Amino acid sequence: MSDHLKTALSLAAAGVPVLPLRRGKVPFGNCPTCSGNACGGRPNMKTPGSCRCAAVCHAWAAATTDPAVVASPAWAAAWRRAVCVGYNPGGAGLTVVDLDDDDAIAWARSALPATRTVPTTRGEHWIYRGTMPSRNAVRPGVDIKSTMSYARYLGPGTGTMADLPDAVRALAVKEPSPVRPTAHAAVAPAGVRGGECPHRTPAYLARGIAMAEQRITGASSAVHATVYQTFLAVLSRHGRCGCLTDAHVSRLFTAAQAKGETARHCADAWTNARTTLGL
User: Disulfide: which of 118, 151, 255, 274 matches 213 by Cβ 3.0-4.6 Å?
Assistant: First the structure.
């Protein structure tokens, strides 16, 4: 039994949902059956469907506390290739504030209450008790990993875990995108009254996000460029009218990370696409 598998089983026994991470510290890609989320997704994902795939599919949503799944033959090949153990913080009732550098750590020490800390390659993870929406690049060098996300397990850390403070929750609150009446009018079809955005039609938006996921998942080369171009396309259609939610963005980031993109690359591509469109 590998050290990674031993660690994963120990965490699962403690109620922490785990998954193997491959080179690049990212989840393993979906199997052919689940490619493009064609199976509908796992039950614990915020998408319809009830995937019963035994493989390590659907990125963070593959995380489990079931020791029979963690040590199953279907996961064995992934553990042999794994470079580290990942876990879903939100599934364990936790939030990780990922601090990437010394400046971010200095900011946290001055702005946040002390809590359990874990050293990382470049910075620290500050772990709080409580959950919230995940969001990357909330400020320079700072990501939030909680629900619908994953983090590397790097040890138990030191210090007493504190409750999630409002100062961290506030970091994930999005500022509204600037409204451009002329651009909005250009995309609104005839017959729409009262300025209601036509993209709020659930089927229209759901289809657009699903197509974007499929485009990213189907990329066989030039993944960086495909991710950026897909983000650009989604934002050009839905970025000015308030349709996109954290759940939609998380689905796109999850698809990109399943293809080998890092969370930082996803955040940069999203930011660059917004800048290109003037959002």
Answer: 255
